[in-house]
Write a structure and sequence with these properties.
flat, 179 residues
Length: 179
């Protein structure tokens, strides 16, 4: 049963329409969720940040030299001692403080690394001494085993010689199963 061209066209049109709707929904979902989270973050940031009470004139913004961000808003944060202290620092002082903090962190990391290295060397030395003791014990044991094997061979030869002499003299071993 063959389909007519009209049915084929109709089914292709429906398929294209459904595909277009799925694409539009996917794009809407991706863009919509991104916009939703951006707006939510902005509203949260605005809600969590207290308003700054500043009595700054717009004229002071033009009088300050560009690049000195800390002195631009000299009237803002007058009520907060920490903000005042940070705003009064110049760029060189801030960079010097940052370098000093990084130096402290790197020195602490270096000290910790040196301590760990010394602990590792100590443990390695201990294990090396234990390995040497073990090797010496294995060598002693091997020497003793070789010596015992040589003594056992000599004893077997001597036993065989005495047994041979005893048989020549007429001795028979009734307990011995193998000959």
């Amino acid at each position: 049963m063959a389909r007519s061209s009209e049915q084929r066209f109709w089914s292709q049109g429906v398929l294209r329409f459904v595909l277009a709707v799925v694409c539009v929904c996917s794009v809407g979902y991706i863009v919509g969720s991104t916009l939703f989270w951006c707006l939510k973050e902005k509203s949260r940031a605005q809600a969590s940040c207290p308003s700054c009470v500043c009595y700054c004139s717009s004229e002071t913004d033009f009088l300050s030299p560009p690049g000195l961000v800390n002195s631009t808003y000299s009237g803002c944060g007058n009520n907060d001692a920490d903000v005042n202290e940070e705003l009064e620092k110049d760029i060189v002082a801030l960079l010097s403080e940052e370098i000093a903090l990084q130096r402290i962190v790197s020195n602490d990391t270096l000290d910790r690394t040196c301590a760990l290295t010394m602990d590792t060397k100590r443990a390695s030395s201990h294990y090396q001494k234990e390995a040497e003791k073990c090797n010496a014990g294995v060598e002693t044991c091997e020497e003793a085993r070789e010596r015992d094997e040589a003594e056992q061979r000599e004893e077997l030869k001597l036993t065989a010689l005495w047994e041979k002499r005893a048989r020549e003299l007429g001795w028979k071993d009734s307990k011995r199963v193998y000959t």
